[in-house]
């Protein structure tokens, strides 16, 4: 695909996207990062309002692109970034719902491994269970930045679900028994795509919901208040 001039989901020409991409779920959060943190910004995608931008952060070329919501959407966009556009690393910067009682609104979680109720992994026809994990060197870099910034965080296993409005919260109670930290909706496809392509990925989250307590951030707060996570991801990206 050396002559790639776009896909059905991304209008970028090959070469317009940096080697490392930050991926929030929300397109407006991608725009917020591009507008407030990057210099010499170029918008390379607006198809389906999944905004993608490339610019410079402290002299390093970085892209930021939304993933949309859910495993299938992340699966499409991260697959194309890795396999069609030559992206080497993706950092997901998203929101999550706490499962662990040790987490509160605004806390940061880094996904070392992912559990799921999705059928996404079945496409690989593996003769057993596969547990996708984040890249260890990326985890080390991000945690080092957070330590320097004196920001608290937890590293551990997260749960990627197909379901946002679940009929029963008992499922989360079951995951809680296995010390799963939080629930989100994208990381299993990101991690699988990275591993299959021989690339690297990391998911980090800000806790926006306490589903077992019925507490949530407002939509605007989700988009604008994840400053610690976004700044840590940007600082880590220039060291990778």
Topology at a glance:
Blueprint: E1 20-23, H1 27-37, E2 39-45, E3 52-57, E4 60-65, H2 71-83, E5 89-98, E6 108-116, H3 136-148, E7 153-160, H4 170-177, E8 182-184, H5 187-197, E9 200-210, E10 215-216, H6 219-224, H7 227-237
Helix pairs in contact: 2-5, 3-7
Give structural attributes.
240 residues, alpha/beta, Rossmann fold, 7 helices, 10 strands
- Contiguous runs where pLDDT drops below 50 for at least 5 residues: none
Gyration radius over CA: 17 Å
Sum up the overall morphology in one term: globular
Secondary-structure element pattern, one letter each: EHEEEHEEHEHEHEEHH
Overall tally of structural domains? 1
Task: Give the total of beta strands.
Answer: 10
Mean pLDDT: 94
Spatial strand arrangement across the major sheet: 5-8-7-6-9
State the end-to-end distance: 26 Å
Continuous helix count: 7
CATH architectural designation: 3-Layer(aba) Sandwich
| Class from secondary-structure proportions | alpha/beta
For the report, how would you describe the main beta sheet?
A: 5 strands, mixed, barrel
The CATH class name reads: Alpha Beta
CATH superfamily: Nucleoside phosphorylase domain
CATH topology tier name: Rossmann fold
Beta-strand content: 25-35%
Estimated helix fraction: 25-40%
